[in-house]
């Protein structure tokens, strides 16, 4: 008789069944140990604290904090995904056309600052221009004019050194040279700052001499009722500038702003300008023409920064379109 120690059937199969139980238990223990090691060594905030903390209360608190944070993160990710899928409109653009709009202010400046026949009335400025044009200065004579030129050139070079980054090393005087025309221009501007503005305006180009004709929407805008809608101002670079439709007079009192309802040159501003080139001071400018600035009413013009240069002897047309943006 064959004995199989209480098992019936194939003894080999029974042995295999008995040996599988400790293997499954070992695998479960290994996975649990691996999970515990991961939880204790992971860099995820809170999980390692919840695993390594002593006591059930501390572990529960850390688990609650971690679960809350991760839940909030998942919720925010869900909201972002849903917002992206919904494709909401954040900006809506409505285009509308105004039937009547304000006509812009137009400022006209001559590229020449002083009239040649009047610059002699400005003693200091005339002396600077005379010394420069006659080339009387001698770098060894120590004249006041030469000292002024050298001082201004030195100031230009110091500003150049301050504006560049060359490993903190200053550039020597022999390495760069200053444009003498710019130096004279700066000296004239400094001298003009000490002169009364009325004297400067008298030395500059005059309104009735420079502006031969003016037409706005078919009306003569040089004289009569339109005279008060021309305002004179002084610019350090171009001298006298004249603004049409300024929105305010020279005293700052408010003026009406012209409005237009139709586009095109027939409903705009047409100017015939005499630049008086025979009155140009050659030491101050090497170009001829007028500077035109188009800007909003009651706004100070900056001809040197924003102007459009119009050459003499040509008919120039400047077309603009006004676009306004309103946020709601």
Keywords summarizing the entry:
single chain; 3 domains; Acid-sensing ion channels like fold; 10 strands; disordered N terminus; 328 residues
Determine and state the CATH class of the largest domain. Mainly Beta
- Average pLDDT number: 80
What class do helices, strands and sheet pairing give? Answer: alpha+beta
State the CATH topology of the largest domain: Acid-sensing ion channels like fold
Order of helices and strands: HHHEEHHHHHEEEEEEEHE
> Strand share of the residues?
5-15%
CATH superfamily (homologous) name of the largest domain: Acid-sensing ion channels like domains
CATH architecture of the largest domain: Sandwich
How many β-strand runs?
10
What does this structure look like?
There is one protein chain. This protein has 328 residues and is an alpha+beta fold. It has 3 domains: 30-86; 101-114 and 204-310, Acid-sensing ion channels like domains (Acid-sensing ion channels like fold, Sandwich); 123-164 and 175-194, no CATH class. It contains 9 helices and 10 strands. The strands form 3 sheets. Strands 5-6-2-9-10 form a 5-stranded antiparallel β-sheet. The chain has a 3-stranded antiparallel β-sheet with strand order 4-3-8. Strands 1-7 form a two-stranded antiparallel sheet. Helix 4 (123-134) packs antiparallel against helix 6 (180-193) and helix 5 crosses helix 6. It is elongated. Mean pLDDT is 80; it is low at 1-20. It holds the Pfam family ASC.
């Amino acid at each position: 008789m064959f004995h199989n120690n209480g098992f019936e059937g194939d003894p080999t199969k029974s042995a295999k069944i008995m040996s599988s139980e400790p293997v499954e238990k070992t695998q479960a223990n290994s996975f649990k140990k691996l999970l515990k090691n991961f939880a204790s060594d992971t860099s995820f905030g809170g999980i390692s604290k919840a695993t390594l903390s002593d006591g059930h209360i501390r572990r529960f608190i850390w688990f609650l904090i971690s679960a809350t944070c991760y839940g909030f993160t998942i919720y925010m990710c869900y909201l972002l995904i849903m917002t992206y899928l919904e494709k909401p409109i954040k900006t809506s653009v409505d285009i509308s056309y105004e039937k009547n709009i304000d006509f812009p202010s137009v400022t006209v400046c001559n590229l020449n600052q002083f009239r040649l026949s009047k610059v002699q009335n400005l003693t200091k400025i005339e002396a600077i221009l005379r010394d420069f044009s006659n080339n009387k200065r001698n770098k060894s004579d120590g004249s006041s004019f030469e000292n002024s030129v050298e001082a201004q050139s030195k100031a230009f070079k110091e500003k150049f050194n301050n504006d560049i980054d060359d490993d903190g090393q200053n550039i020597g005087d022999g390495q760069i040279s200053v444009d003498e025309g710019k130096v004279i221009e700066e000296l004239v501007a400094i001298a003009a700052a000490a002169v009364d503005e009325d004297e400067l305006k008298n030395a500059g180009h005059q309104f009735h001499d420079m502006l031969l004709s003016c037409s706005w929407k078919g009306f003569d805008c040089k004289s009569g009722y339109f005279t008060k809608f021309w305002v004179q101002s002084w610019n350090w670079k171009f001298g006298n500038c004249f603004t049409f439709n300024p929105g305010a007079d020279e005293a700052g009192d408010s003026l009406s702003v012209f409005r237009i309802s139709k586009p095109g040159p027939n409903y705009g501003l047409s100017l015939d300008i005499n630049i008086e080139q025979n009155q140009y001071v050659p030491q101050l400018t090497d170009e001829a023409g007028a500077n035109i600035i188009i800007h909003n009413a009651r706004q100070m013009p900056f001809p040197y920064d924003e102007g459009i240069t119009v050459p003499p002897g040509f008919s120039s047309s400047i077309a603009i379109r006004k676009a306004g943006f309103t946020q709601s």
